[in-house]
Amino acid sequence: MEAALHFSKRITLFVRILASITIVLAILGLIGWLFNYLPLRTFLISNAVMKVNTAILLILAAGNLIQMAGKRPYFWLVLLLSGIIVLISIAIMLEHWHILALNLDELLGTDSKIGSSSPGRISIAGAICFFCIGIAFPCFIYKRYRAGHILSIIVFLTGYLIFLGHLFQINDYYDFKSYSAMSVHSSFAFLCLAQGLLLLYPQHGIVSIVTGPYLGNLMARYVFGIAMLGVPPIIVLYLYGLNQNIYTPAMGALFILIFFFTTIFLIYHFIFSKVNRLDQELHKRYEQLLLGEELSQVGSYETEYKNFTFRGTPQLYRIFGWPTVLAYTDSSLDLLYKIIHPDDVERVRIVVDKALKEIAPYSINYRVILPDGQLKYIYIKARVYKNQDGILCAKGTAMDVTVTKQQEAQLQELNRELTLRNEAIQSTNEELQVMSEELSLSNGALRVSNEELTALKADLEFKVSERTAHLERTLSELKQRNEELDQYVYKVSHDIRSPVASIAGLLSLIEAESDLEKKHQYIQLIGNRVDRLEEFINSILNHSRSLFNALEYKPVSLNKIIQQCLHELEYYPGFDQVQVVIDMPASDIIQSDELQLLIIFKNLLSNAIKYHNPRTESKVWICVSYTDEYTNIQIQDNGIGIAPEYLGKIFQMFFRATQRADGSGLGLYIVRQAVDRLHGKITVQSEEGNGTKFTIVLPVAHANS
Fold first, then answer.
1. Nearest in space to 493 (alpha carbons), one of 485, 483, 504
2. Per-residue confidence band for 130, with pLDDT thresholds at 50, 70 and 90
3. In this structure, are 478 and 350 located in the same domain?
4. Which of 210, 498, 499, 582 could form a disulfide with 529, with the two C-beta atoms 3.0–4.6 Å apart?
5. What is the pTM of this model?
6. Which structural domain, as residue segments, surrounds residue 470?
């Protein structure tokens, strides 16, 4: 948005400069008439002069242009001046056609130059240009941008053709009787006015094809620049060849055609090849973004509140249980409000209305009831803004947080259980107090011996201490589970939202950026964020599968497991820089769970590749041996190693020993869980700068069978 605002300010400044140049040229022409100084009327080129009426109308038109480029233009004044310009231009054309004789050309100053068919009169070409300019201003005021741009293009082409005639001394272009007689500074002034009109509203009408931030707009700018800058050199070559008798006019025309089409072909080939490559890359990154949204359960959308419509990505429609074929099409916001839980509708409306009123970001949690009756919890985060037409819009994301809410409910249940256990402990203490008092009262009545009372007290104290210790252990375990679950939920939510927010920001930059190279860089950054998000989600899935999938013991080939992991890591960054050496017996079948083994090998091998030492010949050694009851696995590398102070922490959840590479911090934690589920043991030896060795001992029913 800031880049677009800066671009708009620069365009407005340029329009004012063009209008100022026009006024300066017109004033020079008037000074030439006032002091009868011919060079200022002809601008030292050709016999065509700037007429008094031309100078006056140019000043009126330039004044209108400055008004329109201002923050608060007086539209009534613009319409008044435009009407004057149109009426005078019509009267001049009627005089040329001998329909009307107002003698406007002799009111303020006459041209006595020999050879002029109409002394002091603006040419038909000039009158047509003023007529188009006078009509263009009302078109822009009443938002008929396309019509205004067409009229401005007519003025631009007329001025451009006459200016080239002066530049290359082609008399018929600028001095053909009463039709095209126009001075060089008049034609240049028309060029300035036409460009100012075309750039007055660059985001609308025909001009938006050239000024927009997209690939097609960039290609249009190339083509327009080539057309405007390519014509003069071609004319120069053509005229030079004719003057030097290098070729005949027919041969010259043929040469121009061949040169033109060859140049156009080469330029179009370059442009379209580059556009196609970027389009393919963008399509690939777009598919990765959609996959990232699907895996992270986050959908994005944009709304327009004037028409009360929204459009979203396929994942948004999946979250709300709608057909994905509706994605990217305008849908009514009523569709969204209909599925919001009745108890949440009013709260949502209040938050959204406040954000629209203040044009501020907002976020909110609410419930939805899907068409199939399913209840979901949704977290919305959005940013409200005004588009180029001043219409209130919003862009945001919708995240399915149903699982998080369920986990929060489980935590609340655990807290309630802790409260009940604390109450039970307190109740037990009260019961013991009552029992102690009863024993004290019955001491005399029952004449219980001191030995029996002592034994009874000791027995009661033992039971109380045993129950208290059990309750304290339970309380400690529940607190630990509560803390781990809080940490897990926070970390997962943060590490998913961070790349999604980064991707949304980069997409906004791509929409606002006009530089093709920067667009390509932003696309690469989006790819990196998507890859990072995919790696983190895979780690979470592995963690979930390792925890909750039932163990399935069956004959498993360790060599097949290793080869499968290496194949999946084939495109992993740094894979081609590491040599893997495998040493195992010919018979590699063990009785174990295949999924847990895949998790162990893949995480350890990916770490060895990720943290290899680029200054040495990187190697990874995998050694497998068997005993009657155990399978011994060693995975060793000569990578960067682990600092001694981190060795005791590497198996903790979300711990990362180095910032050299991105990682989820779950890999080794998942490996230890997988080893524990197989009732095995894992140890690590490492020396910083010299590599790391993991040793895994797994009990098997039949090792080496």
1. 485
2. very high
3. no
4. 499
5. 0.43
6. 404-494
